[in-house]
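Q: What would this chain look like folded?
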Amino acid sequence: MVRHTGKFVSTVPALVLAVGLASPALAQEAERTGAGDAGDGFGEIVVTAQRRAESLQEVPISATVLTGAMLEAKGVDGIQSLQYAAPGLTMADYGSANVLNIRGIGRSAVDIELPSGVVLYRDSVPTFPGYFQNEPYFDIAGVEVLKGPQGTVAGKSAAGGAIFIRTASPDLSGFSGKAQVEYGNYQQYGGTLVLNAPLSDTFGVRLAYRHFQRDKILGESLTGDFTGRPGRPNQDSVRLGALWEPDTAFSAELRLDLSDLDFGGNLTSSYGADLYDYVQNANFAYRDKSARLVGKMSYTLDSGVELRSVSGYQGVHTINNFDRNGAAPSNDRFDSAGTFKLYSQELNLISPDDDDHPFSYILGAFYQRTDTVIEDVENDGFNFYGEPGDLGGFVQSSEFPYLGLATPYRKREKDLSAFVDLKYKFDPRFYAELGLRYSNYKTRNQTDIVFGDGTADPTIPFFAGTQSLSESDVDGKFTLSFNPNRDHNIYANVARAHISGGFNIVGGAKFDKERVWNYELGWKANWAGRKVQTQFAAFYQTLSNYQAQFANPDLGGQNLLQNADGQSKIYGAEFALQARLGGFHFDASVAYLDSKLGDFPNVVSPFLPPPNNVISISGGKSPFAPKFAFNGGARYEFLVSEDTTITPRVDVSSQSKQLGALFDVPETRLPSRTLINAGLMVQKGPFSVDFWVENLADKRFVAGIQDLGRIWYPAAPRQYGVKLGFEF
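A: My prediction, written as structure tokens:
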């Protein structure tokens, strides 16, 4: 059997470079008006996700906004650690697949065919929903986590919320840059280099590079018949940006990201086994090679109306092989490899929104195409290996899979949408906003699954077919916002969004789209001369056709996606506070969430023996949704001399217990967790030394559970190190 362990995504054709350039104006305005860096009180923190630069305290949505400086101060270097700075967001990392949930909505399990209800944007273009979100955060301008349905501006994949990541744009004001090197325990090495060069008064470029490597951080005792370098990442990322602003009316920008992220492979444990003492049997590999090209262009008419275009191309080749039954000594593993491509194009027409224009609008048209190819048996694309008793019942230690693809699995998705957002100000203090989005989604899958006895490549037909789905929907929101004075904003909104339907890759059964209604009340306020800010939101969500995953005995125990009967409910509240008093900075946020899902009749429980294993689940809790979550941080800047500061900091994050599946059994329960990060930053002029520690108390806990409790992913133990930086 031929083994292919990796290939890089082809270089983006020059044609794509010219398809669409679009405006960096929002990102640049956000950077210029970001959180203040000196004195009491706050600078203006802005939200750009709604196609305009809007004040966080004035926009009527629930959001967590973190500038690049905030991310560095809190040690947020990727999507995994972002959840500890944004209550209401949870993330479980399963290699190439990510389970992102906001307010209990997103994904309930890991499967290529299960859509995500949380969409993640990078530099204004959507990324692969639910996959390949592990790119490191470096040279970041800001991250915005929008909570609740964002179906108007973000579309069908944002029923739970959306995350917008903005990387830093070229700065035309002068040559600048920074360099940072780091060292930590577990032989951790890293480095970041940023160079910003204006080549003229109207054109500039920015180059950013990041390298990271580490010895195995998990697995104090690692035994078994495995190969590879599990738990030992070695990663490189580079980003090139170019900005052209010939006048105040026109701007164009290009971003090119290239990443080679070798994670080594995910070590897994299982229920009843030592969380950090493994027996692993797999040909470990986990590597994502990707390219992303983003083009932006903006032109502002004399009337103030802005024309904007945003174009994107993304390509990823991934390989992810791991031990499918965790710490169990038996041979049960999974190999996968595939190539994913995404093309997107958005056009906007945006009117001015100020006191001189009581009526304003945003018009948009959007197109996205996603091509998925999962390799066949010969290329290790979708292969299950096991022991007698698995489907096919073959001999132990076989070199051949018992289930795989005779030909590559191919899936093409197309999304064509149009949206409008209308705002009318009855007076400067009170306005109403209506947003609507029409979307047409089409998908076509080609599947040819075969199985065998494990003594040769599988050839016996299991499921083959071509399936097509076409569905249309209308999402939207209606908002009322009232500002009794400049320091208070009270709002109410109703929003509707959906998650598309699809087909199970194994067995081919169809599942329907999931619909979400969200009802929300919020209050944002400034206190003590704007030295303290607060945000509060209470919400109630109803869901129809909730999508979940269960084992199917007719498919040899393989998982099957299906919809809940009846209505599901998720409700909760969120409160956040930020204070800045001289050199003292403090932030705290808490989220409460509860749920009661619909009925799943006649599902098979893998935790009960037959014939009593066919049960009905009613009123279950949403997976990956802790009832309580808390984040808090404090730091104080001691001014030692005119150019020297010493800043100690501490951050605390806590989540209550949660489930990794709809079955509430010990095998699926994630325990509560409280993590403490701390650091000490010394800055003298352009130089800095940052001593940091993550998971200070060395808490050992389960970070994620997959495959209905078969696979447990341990969290990282205590890490510490030092970063040396220089800015110029």
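Residues 14 and 203 are 20 Å apart (CA to CA).
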